[in-house]
Backbone:
C-alpha cells in the first residue's frame, strides 16, 4: 500500500527531516508512528499525501509513484487517503452533516449518494443524532469523531491520523481507538502518529519508530519505547 525507497527530505533552511528511509506498509495494516518531537514523524506522514515532497527517493502509494504525479493529479490521490488531525480542522459555520458532506461535494457526488454515505459515516462514529449540530456544540471527542467520519466518507484505502487522541481525556481516547480499530478491521490501512505510550503498549500493533529522520525500530507488535 505504501513504499518508500531511499527517501530524503531537507527543508530550504537546511533542516534534514528525513534521512534515507526505506519502508513498506502492506494493505490492511495498522501502524503506529512514534518517536521524539522533531524526529521527522510529521514530515514522514505529509509526504504520503503529497503535502511535502521528498528531496530525493521514491514514494509509491497504492501503486501511484508520487514523484511522477502532476499537481493537478494530487486531489485525485487524496480521494483515496483520509486524514485526521489532532485539532480536528472542522469548518465552524457548517453543521456536522455539512462538514462531512463537503468532502463529497468537492468531487461532485450526487445529492442522494452524498446523503447515503454521510449517514453511513455518522452511523459508524455513533453521531447520527448530532447531524445538525455545529462543531462548537460538540465535545472534543465528538468533534474528533466528526473529523474521522469526514476522513472515511470517501471509503479511503489509507487513513492517516496525526495525534488523534492528543487533546482528549483518557476515556474518550480509548473510544477513538475502538473506532480506528473498527475502521481497520473493515480493510482500511491505518497509520497513527502518536505520543500516547499507554495506547501503543496496550493495543499491540506494528510500531515504526523514527529518530533523527531515520527508522530506529520497526517491530511487528512493538512498544512505545520512550518516556511519555
Residues:
Amino acid at each position: 500500500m505504501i513504499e518508500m525507497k531511499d527517501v530524503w527530505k531537507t527543508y530550504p533552511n537546511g533542516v534534514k527531516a528525513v534521512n534515507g528511509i526505506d519502508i513498506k506498509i502492506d494493505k490492511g495494516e495498522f501502524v503506529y508512528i512514534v518517536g521524539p518531537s522533531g524526529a521527522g514523524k510529521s514530515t514522514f506522514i505529509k509526504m504520503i499525501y503529497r503535502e511535502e515532497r521528498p528531496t530525493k527517493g521514491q514514494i509509491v502509494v497504492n501503486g501511484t509513484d508520487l514523484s511522477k504525479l502532476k499537481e493537478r493529479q494530487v486531489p485525485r490521490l487524496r480521494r483515496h487517503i483520509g486524514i485526521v488531525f489532532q485539532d480536528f480542522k472542522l469548518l465552524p459555520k457548517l453543521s456536522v452533516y455539512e462538514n462531512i458532506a463537503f468532502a463529497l461535494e468537492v468531487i461532485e457526488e450526487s445529492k442522494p449518494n452524498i446523503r447515503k454515505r454521510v449517514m453511513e459515516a455518522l452511523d459508524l462514529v455513533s453521531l447520527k443524532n448530532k447531524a445538525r449540530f455545529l462543531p462548537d456544540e460538540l465535545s472534543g471527542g465528538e468533534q474528533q469523531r466528526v473529523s474521522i467520519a469526514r476522513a472515511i466518507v470517501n471509503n479511503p484505502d489509507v487513513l492517516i491520523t496525526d495525534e488523534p487522541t492528543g487533546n482528549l481525556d483518557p476515556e474518550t481516547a480509548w473510544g477513538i481507538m475502538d473506532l480506528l480499530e473498527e475502521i481497520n478491521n473493515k480493510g482500511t490501512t491505518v497509520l497513527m502518529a502518536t505520543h500516547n505510550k499507554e495506547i501503543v503498549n496496550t493495543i499491540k500493533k506494528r510500531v515504526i519508530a523514527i529518530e533523527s529522520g531515520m527508522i530506529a525500530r520497526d517491530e511487528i507488535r512493538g512498544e512505545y519505547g520512550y518516556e511519555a
User: Anything to note?
Assistant: The longest strand covers residues 16-25. The two ends are 30 Å apart (CA to CA).
